[in-house]
């Protein structure tokens, strides 16, 4: 959710990242996102010898697409740049009536 809506890198004129610490890089906390009910569905992967599925990086991608689709449906404008912050959404939809 944070990657889609508010996590962004900032660089100075010399190309150095200026928000490289946890003090400067905005990662959402439990106070920033709604309560999420997690449901585990245990279905073995038939293509894996032990039936296991990925639980690390793979779940990161679907929320981005879901949020982008929700923003596009709500505003009528597809966002092509992350994060889809309120400022960026307002900038890209200002000419839409």
CATH architecture descriptor text = 2-Layer Sandwich
- What letter string, H or E per element, gives the SSE order? HHH
The overall average pLDDT, rounded, is 89
CATH superfamily: Aldehyde oxidase/xanthine dehydrogenase, molybdopterin binding domain
CATH class category label: Alpha Beta
The main β sheet shows up as:
none
What count of structural domains?
1
Helix content: 25-40%
Tell me the radius of gyration. 18 Å
Distance between the termini: 28 Å
Remind me, CATH topology? Aldehyde Oxidoreductase, domain 4
Shape: extended
Strand content: under 5%
* Number of distinct helices: 3
pLDDT < 50 runs, ≥5 residues:
none
Number of strands: 0
| Helix-strand category | mainly alpha
Task: Kindly describe this structure.
By secondary structure, this protein is mainly α. The protein has one domain (1-97): Aldehyde oxidase/xanthine dehydrogenase, molybdopterin binding domain (Aldehyde Oxidoreductase, domain 4), CATH 3.30.365. The protein contains three helices and no strands. It has helices at residues 2-5, 61-75, 86-93. The chain is extended, with a radius of gyration of 18 Å. The chain starts with a helix and ends with a helix.
